[in-house]
Amino acid sequence: MPLEYFDKISSTNDFIRENLNDFKDNNFSGVYTFNQTRGKGPKGYVWVSEPEKNIALTFCLTDKSLPVNNLSFWVAITVCEFIRKVTDTEALVKWPNDILIHKKKVCGILIEKIGNIFAVGIGINVLQENFETLPKASSLVSLAPKKYVLKDLASNLITHFKENFNLINDTAFLLEKYNSYLFGKDRVLTFKVDDSQINGIIRKVDTDGLLQIEFENIGIKKFRIKEIEFLY
């Protein structure tokens, strides 16, 4: 089954979960919509999206030889490069896999293991302009004004993934590229750790996906998701 369009879906990732037999045998099969009513992000967050303004897309990877440790890097890099290309901006990856333009989140990624496949969910804010309740979010049209056609973007995004699929096996390349796109790298930022605010400098993300931050008088510490929060 190819990538299939729906006028409305509650959650593209959940749709894959509920119809797994239709997608379990083909890489890059999946669904997309411009009206996702109950989108979700990592850590149980809700992904809020105005109808007919943004892209919600989930595709499946079914290859049993998939290098799992590279998956998050590959997806984040591919989306970041795609957004850079269509917007002509310096889009960056905020660890682990949000895409930012000018410190504003324009894309979220949710990768889930469902049965024996990986469902790669991507939400891109494209035409939405009202983010009053989400001060750290924005959209492509707000930050890089030009004409964006949702169906063209969705089609070109999945094509971009297919064209770059061979890179998923190149661990050294992915790690170097990911760190080159890393938001806040080698700059002083403020973080929340154990209910305390502390300044530190992001040095890199390592092969295990851990964020390495250097703190004054402490040195470098490694963090997993949920152990640290960016304050910016």
Write the layout of secondary structure elements.
Elements: E1 3-6, H1 12-18, E2 30-33, E3 39-40, E4 46-47, E5 54-61, H2 68-87, E6 92-94, E7 98-101, E8 104-114, E9 117-125, H3 140-143, H4 150-163, H5 171-180, E10 188-193, E11 196-205, E12 211-215, E13 219-223, E14 229-231
Parallel strand pairs: 1-2
Antiparallel strand pairs: 2-5, 3-4, 5-9, 6-7, 7-8, 8-9, 10-11, 10-14, 11-12, 12-13
Helix pairs in contact: 2-5
Description of the structure:
With 232 residues, this protein is an alpha+beta fold. The protein has 2 domains: 178 residues, BirA Bifunctional Protein, domain 2; 44 residues, Roll (SH3 type barrels). 24% of the residues lie in helices and 33% in strands. The protein has 5 helices and 14 strands. The strands form 3 sheets. Strands 1-2-5-9-8-7-6 form a 7-stranded mixed beta sheet, sandwiched between helices. It has a 5-stranded antiparallel beta sheet with strand order 13-12-11-10-14. Helix 2 crosses helix 5. The radius of gyration is 17 Å and the shape is globular. The N and C termini lie far apart (42 Å). The model has no long low-confidence stretch (mean pLDDT 94).
